[in-house]
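lol so apparently i was supposed to do this last week
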Amino acid sequence: MKILIINGPNLNLLGLREPEIYGSENYDALCRFIEAVCKEQGIQCEIFQSNYEGAIVDEIQNTYGVFDGIVINPAAYTHTSVAILDALKAVALPAVEVHLSDVDGREDFRKISYAGMACIKTFKGLGFEGYRRGILYLKEYLQKEKGM
Ligand code: DQA
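anyway here it is w/ DQA bound
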């Protein structure tokens, strides 16, 4: 089982950016956390981060035939990007959406998620733990629905 973790804009500034919302741990710590979860679960994973919408679209397109599923935190593009939604629909791989913060308890514009419309499940407001829950959910889905 091979999955791709995609992180959108400004997540590379974790630890620095609004720590009262996103916590004090940095992006390297998030990557180490994700890698440890995947190792423990016997899942092969790659992690991709970009601040550019088109780069994220390219990366999603490149998953086709290479990865079994996607865990994605599109960050601010969650609330704006029909292109990321369309790319997820195009490759049609099971995708799980993750947000560190509770997007529903923040500004109204964060309540809309375009990417989420192509995802089988969303975890929000759980910090790093949301990635663990997302990875486990995806693993169980792939086992159940795709016989992996
Ligand atoms: C975020 C929530 C988004 O609204 C925000 O733009 C982000 C991070 C989160 O993980 O909580 O950059 O996706």
